[in-house]
Amino acid sequence: MNTGGGDAPGLNAVIRAVTLAGIDQGWEVLGIRRGYTGLLQEMVDEDPGVCVLDAHAVRGITHLGGTILGTSTRGNPFGLEVRQPDGTTGTVDRSDEIISLFEERGIDALIAIGGDGSLRIAHELYRKGLPVVGVPKTIDNDLAATDVTFGFQTAVEVATDAIGRLHSTAESHQRVMVVELMGRHTGWIALESGMAGGADVILIPEIPFSVDRIVEKVLARERAGRRFSIVVVAEGASPRGGDPSYADEEGRYGGIAERLAGEIEELAEKETRTLVLGHIQRGGPPTAYDRNISLRFGAAAVRCVAEGAMGTMVALTGGDVRPVPLEDAVRDIKRVDPNCDAVQTARQLGISFGD
Ligand code: F6P
Questions:
Q1: What's the confidence (pLDDT) of residue 211?
Q2: Predicted pLDDT at 339
Q3: Computed over its alpha carbons, how large is the radius of gyration of the chain?
Q4: Which of 267, 279, 300, 353 is the most exposed place for a label (fewest CB within 10 A)?
Q5: H helices of the chain, where?
Q6: Atom number of ligand 1 nearest to Cα 247
């Protein structure tokens, strides 16, 4: 098995479940370190690229954040970055080598634990002949074909706690606080934590906002004697007709809170401060929910391998974990439906989406 892309709370619980359930089948379970790169680099600083996982190796890790296998966001075997002789960076396709290495080592199947990027890679490898089962990981909850991804609930808990804590300062200082949350192209974390944390405004990529409408909400609260406001903004949110804020040329999001705070402060004439919660949303122990769903996903992936259900991803659908075609999971990302009952509920409670 391997873990790819950004880390998410619950990865270690999946690793434990896959290992113990695999051993229970009588298999030898291997962990590939740092995504796929462990296969290509046998040893890095005395750290082997592939390791045997036994019961001892996965003891006491269910509650730990991160991944004992390491991970990589730059390990796509179809386009691995290489430095060219002229000093520039190019890419090379080493996917055939990866498939040969699985065969040479006598590995019968890969359990790929990842988000949409990593599972797209897994799906491409499956199409080239590698027997693969995927496990849906990401705090963003943006994978199609599953009701939930592991890591999401923990991120929502962390963000809800942060929003709750901001209330006291916002109220004491009569300020507007803008909280920037992760989620890439989707607003799942912002929506759920914003509602649970008592935000006054929630901005998500699925509902383009207008700064004027946000300011209207802030000023309406002011007139009602509520002289502070909490604005929760998903990192990928954008103004109507405008672009999202990017932190770098690689397309990572970042900077929307700062941009928005300046505009709100000027238009509402209220002190406005920002909090960018960042990787804290991905760190630390998973919630009980994430531990359990991760254990269930891991054990279900082993059942898929045992039954020969390759090219699938384990998914939570209506309370049960079952395999779905990997293709369905990576075809498109799962976005918040602007008309879903959660958004309707938030609106009924007086929360503004800035539209
Ligand atoms: O996909 C998980 C995620 O945390 C996103 O919410 C965020 O946009 C991105 O990863 C950040 O990536 P990195 O850790 O590479 O900065």
A1: 98
A2: 98
A3: 22
A4: 279
A5: 11-24, 37-40, 95-105, 116-127, 152-173, 188-197, 211-223, 256-268, 288-307, 326-330, 341-348
A6: 16
- Within 8 A by CB and 6+ apart from 120, the residues are 330
137 pocket-lining for ligand 1 (C-beta < 6 Å)? no
Q: Are 233 and 256 in contact (CB under 8 A)?
A: yes
Model pLDDT, residue 25: 98
Give the chain's residues under pLDDT 70. none
140 in active site? yes
Closest residue CA from atom 8 of ligand 1: 184
pLDDT at 21: 98
Which structural domains are found in the chain, ordered by start? 2-151+286-329 (3.40.50.450), 154-283 (3.40.50.460)
Q: pLDDT at position 47, please? A: 80
Task: Find the catalytic residue in 140, 142, 200, 290.
Answer: 140
Indicate the residue type of 182: M
Residue 44: per-residue pLDDT: 75
